[in-house]
Design a protein that fits this description.
Belongs to the universal ribosomal protein uL2 family. This is 50S ribosomal protein L2. By secondary structure, this protein is mainly beta. The chain is built from no helices and seven strands. The strands form three sheets. It has a three-stranded antiparallel β-sheet with strand order 5-6-7, with no helix packed on it. The chain is flat. The relative contact order is 0.19.
Length: about 110
């Protein structure tokens, strides 16, 4: 994983680093592992704005990540390393030998 280092053009940019996304596979996410993520626009159940400055943003779909890893005794191959807009970690698409697909958090 390559790390991008920024030039110190301001005090906030000094010693700032970020990932350059070189290891991420350029593929679309698996449709069967996506779920709808609805936005509230900082409004509660009666429609009144309850939190300021919490609205807008880019439309996102939630990736269903398998945190429990129930199929731990079967072998799987990593098909892709993907970007997840909902968390700072990348996710890996696993395809088990029986054909079932799942996302896991990609280890470094």
């Amino acid at each position: 994983m390559a790390i991008k280092k920024y030039k110190p053009t301001s005090n906030g940019r000094r010693n700032m680093t970020a990932s350059d996304f070189a290891e991420i596979t350029k593929s679309t996410p698996e449709k069967s592992l996506l779920a709808k993520k609805s936005k509230t626009g900082a409004r509660n159940n009666s429609g009144r704005m309850t939190v300021r400055h919490h609205a807008g943003g880019h439309k996102q779909a939630y990736r269903l990540v398998d945190f429990k890893r129930i199929k731990d005794n079967t072998t799987a191959t990593v098909k892709a390393i993907e970007y997840d807009p909902n968390r700072t970690a990348n996710i890996a698409l696993l395809v088990y030998e029986d054909g079932i697909k799942s996302y896991i958090l990609a280890p470094k």
